[in-house]
Amino acid sequence: MYVYADNAATTPVHAKAAEAMLACLKEEYGNPSSLHTVGQRAKELLDRARADMAACLGAEAREIYFTGGGSEADNQALLTGAMLGAKKGKKHLITTAFEHHAVLHAMKRLEKLGFTVTYLDVHEDGVVRPEDVAAALTEDTALVSVMLVNNEIGTLQPVAEIAKLCHEKGVLVHTDAVQAVGHIPVDVKALDVDMLSLSGHKFHAPKGVGALYCRKGLRPEILIEGGAQEFGRRGGTENLPGIVAMAAALKETTENLAREMDQVTALREKLIAGLETIPHSRLNGSRTLRCPGTVNFCFEGIEGESLLLLLDAKGVAASSGSACTSGSLDPSHVLLALGLPHEIAHGSLRLSLTADNTEAEVDHILAVVPEVVSYLRSISPVWEALETGKQPHLI
Ligand SMILES: *Cc1c(COP(=O)(O)O)cnc(C)c1O
């Protein structure tokens, strides 16, 4: 058995999304900007995809701007908030210490351009406190960006509450909802955010396509100059096959959301209960405030990389945090933001499930992980030091 449990890194493409994409590739090769019939048919598909996406998110079609993925949407949102603020002389931005690097690195860039950024603590449970946001707001604050679901530990953030208190002070709010859309209900009006990022490949659409929701009345900054596509806010011929597939995937996941959330939550609970029985292990992030599918554990005395390689050999595809940091030896910035010491943050395991996973697969994971953890501890000098009392156990 081989279990794919790395859905927070990317998800398999849904059959309906692939079907929609293939039909578009084969038959609708037109350029939506062309005036002839072939072009206008493509334009109709584009408009329909935009309307379908908007309907799933409680937005208006005019408020959906297609992008080349979640990272681009994040960059566009932050630049938009920063530039709108700068026009009013406001140059302070607020985010959290455990955002995705698309947000953190875009913030670093804005710091170089003269903006000041506050990185909020996320506490040990991996949840931002609205009162911390309130305390960080100043007269100079232009934008607050807080993710809806953290990609490494799966914790939910109180974005609606944060948006409410920011709007009372006239501050714009963006949320990176890349791990939320298609996994929990996301309604832009209920959240009352000004901007929201999403990415197709995190909910069973292909890679390289995403969207920015930008509330009516706000104009997104242009990242890519060119033609008049995306209401003049993003130049370049649209990725129509990707867009059509993304809309199909979102419709599909939205229709089945309630049932799939229950199903995935039950699998996750079984997974947590099983992994908790491993001695000197800890679940990272709040037990209750979490999205259905994501679980992140630390196991003392072992190193994440070797754990992943052995799990792969035994038929479990997992991750040690984000796909972006798992290639490096640095501990995850997310786990460090929770206040975990470096030696613990190195031994983390993220398992992320969707409704494609089965109970038999969870059983397989629960058979394999304890075995691999025991083996790695048996050959670990760090574990020996812990067991012989030379070093104190931290978990
Ligand atoms: C994956 C991810 C992104 C980046 O999306 P891409 O489409 O891969 O660029 C941004 N934010 C979060 C929270 C993510 O999980």
UniProtKB/TrEMBL annotation:
Keywords: Iron, Iron-sulfur, Metal-binding, Pyridoxal phosphate, Transferase. Its cofactor is pyridoxal 5'-phosphate. Its EC number is 2.8.1.7. It catalyses: (sulfur carrier)-H + L-cysteine = (sulfur carrier)-SH + L-alanine. Residues 3-364 form the Aminotransferase class V domain. One of its GO terms (molecular function) is metal ion binding. InterPro entries: Aminotrans_V_dom (IPR000192), Aminotrans_V_PyrdxlP_BS (IPR020578), Cysteine_dSase (IPR016454), PyrdxlP-dep_Trfase (IPR015424), PyrdxlP-dep_Trfase_major (IPR015421), PyrdxlP-dep_Trfase_small (IPR015422). It holds the Pfam family Aminotran_5. It is an enzyme of class 2 (transferase). Belongs to the class-V pyridoxal-phosphate-dependent aminotransferase family. NifS/IscS subfamily. This is cysteine desulfurase. It comes from Candidatus Avoscillospira stercorigallinarum.
